[in-house]
Amino acid sequence: MESYLLTEQDRSTLQSKVTNKLREVILTGHFNMGDRLVQEEWADKLGVSRMPIREALVQLEKEGLVRIEPRRGAIVTPISVEDIKEIYQLRVLLEGEAVERALPYIEEEDIKELSRLDSMMRSLGNTEEDVEIYMRLNIEFHHILRRGCPWRRIHDMIDTLWKGIPPYTPSLLADHLEETHKEHGLMIEGIKQRDAKKLRKVIERHILRTRDNLIEVILEAEKETNRSGSKDF
């Protein structure tokens, strides 16, 4: 039986840890569509009270991973491989367009901030706390890349696509962060060169590579679950 019990160090950032644990088990295939995620059971599994479980479920509902129903509680609605393909293909189309249109509005201060964020991300290790910091920095990095785009609606659409999996992929793809560092460096280089086509190409390749890595992780987790023949925790 796999243990999900949190350590004392984990408890220092309890809410975030609980949310990450529940997100991870949903994304890696431990639940089927329509399964109930019972608060009392997961409080026992993680060694916490029900309060952080309830708060985590509120966040996971916003991400589309659970649905809270009266009298039934949290119903799992895991994101499928097809969902991943849809989200990331739309990101390619929209973010590629947005960063290309944002480039004329990116100023020297923005470039300095992107470089600072890039350096900070490269300096982080692979602990859970480091990965959480990385996720926040990565969100800010991508926001700066496109915030100068004058098209208001494209921002709304991209923000919708980011409400779910994209912000949390570093926690699932820690083995691929070196590739991400290289791609971030190429993005900054494209900006400095004022090469819109190069910047767009790097962004699109970055999104598609992340998509493929994420699908690989999900499929491998499904295989592991099938080999074990059980969803016991």
Automatic annotation (TrEMBL):
Looking at the record, the residues that make up the HTH gntR-type domain are: 12-79
Q: Which UniProt keywords apply?
A: DNA-binding, Transcription, Transcription regulation
InterPro entries with a match to the protein in the record: GntR_C, TF_FadR/GntR_C, Tscrpt_reg_HTH_GntR, WH-like_DNA-bd_sf, WH_DNA-bd_sf
Gene3D superfamilies (UniProt xref): GntR ligand-binding domain-like, Winged helix-like DNA-binding domain superfamily/Winged helix DNA-binding domain
Q: Does the keyword Transcription regulation apply?
A: yes
CDD domains, A to Z: WHTH_GntR
For this protein, what is any one GO molecular function term? DNA binding
The name on file for this protein is GntR family transcriptional regulator
| Gene name, Swiss-Prot/TrEMBL | hypR
